[in-house]
Amino acid sequence: MCGRFVVARATGELTAELDIDHEAPDLPGASYNVAPTTQIRLVVDTPEARRLESAKWGLVPGWAKDESVGVRAFNARSETAVSKPTFRAAVKQRRGVIPVDGYYEWHKRADGSKQPYYVHPSGGGSLLFAALYEWWKRPEPADDGSAWLLSATILTRQSATENLEWLHDRTPVFLDRGDVDEWLDPATTGDAALVDDFADRALAVSGGLELRPVDRRVGNVRENDEHLIDEVEVAE
């Protein structure tokens, strides 16, 4: 699963790296402790342009009566997303990418305690999560006057690479940069075969990730500084 991640790169770098044509004016800034229900950066393709948008982390389907549904939908299992009412419409035509620097995962130790680790690409650059997104019409406009809410979820898969499966039994579905265009293509109708294919491709990206133990402060969403990703010593 993925419950916290880091976004420290400037939006200009992402624009160049991912061939983005348009940046939303309200993009969230850098954060070393991004948590569910907060605003995140989301890449989407439309017939006109590739856009970097600001979205709420936690998918709210179009049929929802209120946006609280998103609290329980910040991750979507790749094995069942096609059949789940919350996600199945998004699988078909609203697939996105969430670019991050890395993410945190908690490892349950033999004594029952949990130790957080920071997982990130070994060569630097962005780590790309396969995502689903939806537009939800608010019953009443938000404080900023917007009538629509854009929200997203991260696809996850059962972990199957030695470097990560000891840490947690699930990981995000990682995307290789060369697969982004295909995943985002709005002309492709997504189905179970498509999701399974990209979940399998994620294994190649998994092998190039590194991880290090970090301070338990990351468990407190109010903690947010660059030292959260510094390596710490872990007692045996």
Automatic annotation (TrEMBL):
EC number per UniProt: 3.4.-.-
InterPro entries: SRAP (IPR003738), SRAP-like (IPR036590)
Alphabetized GO MF terms: hydrolase activity
Pfam families membership: SRAP
Keywords: Covalent protein-DNA linkage, DNA damage, DNA-binding, Hydrolase, Lyase, Protease
SUPFAM superfamilies associated with the record: BB1717-like
Domain of life: Bacteria
Family: Belongs to the SOS response-associated peptidase family.
Name assigned to this protein: Abasic site processing protein
